[in-house]
Amino acid sequence: MLFIFLVVVALIAPSYSLAANNQSYNWSYKPEKNNQPVTTEDKYLELLAKTDGIFIGNTERKKLYLTFDNGYENGFTEDVLDVLKENQVPAAFFITGHYLETAPDLVKRMVEEGHIVGNHSWHHPSLPAVGDGELTEELNSVKEKFTELTGVKEMNYLRPPRGEFSERSLTLSNKLGYTNVFWSLAYKDWDVNDQKGGQYAFEQIMKRIHPGAIMLIHSVSSDNAEALPKVIEEAKKQGYSFESLDELMFERQMNEWPLP
């Protein structure tokens, strides 16, 4: 009887739980000099290829993808949205449950002005550290509240909280319909008690810009809000254009560039 029970459990259990490894990784990339495209660990490339995740675009084209992590509102997102609107630049905002509950008008404005709103989980946990059911609930709760607030039914992109992931978390979130979006450009901008001014932010961002860069910027940073107009202006002078993640995914689906 025990054998029969175990066979039944094996048959009905989700395949990702049985097959996917849950070893936890922290996202990182290998910096390059002179604004050259970056790469990452071979293991990470393997996992992203297996689960359709992304961290960089076509490195043959001077396109940039602005993404903001919005765990909470610190008073600067309105300024960021003003700059994006003025310069007609698209972006993706990855939001948490806390953000949905405390800044609903800003979320509505993101949608109204044509930006992508992505999932950053409800409570911002390490996704490898939670079970399948809890992980599913973390993502579903954000999507349901977002749809209730905006009427938009689709939420296609996920930024794993803390940059922590595993084969299991990538596999399960992909089965739930998400593209995991990591990044190829970032700097230490999230510490609100260690802001160094807009010029510092500008310099940090510009020395890391490269073709195909998926840019991780935190909207809680006063430095970023101050630097953003100058970043956009200078990047355009250097021949870059800003595009949305939807455009990046369309290019990939049309086989215009291979997976990294």
Brief sketch in words of this structure:
The chain is α/β, with parallel strands linked by helices and 260 residues long. It is 44% helix and 12% strand.
Key terms:
Polysacc_deacetylase_ArnD; five-stranded parallel β-sheet; disordered N terminus; alpha/beta; TIM Barrel; 260 residues; 44% helix
What does this structure look like?
Pfam families: Polysacc_deac_1 (PF01522). One of its GO terms (molecular function) is hydrolase activity, acting on carbon-nitrogen (but not peptide) bonds. It comes from Alkalihalobacillus trypoxylicola. It contains eleven helices and nine strands. Strands 2, 3, 4, 8 and 9 form a five-stranded parallel sheet that branches. The chain has a two-stranded antiparallel ribbon with strand order 1-6. The radius of gyration is 19 Å and the shape is globular. With 260 residues, it is an alpha/beta fold. The protein is 44% helix and 12% strand. It has a single domain, classed as Alpha-Beta Barrel (TIM Barrel), CATH 3.20.20.370. The longest helix is centred in the middle third of the chain and has 19 residues. The N terminus is likely disordered.
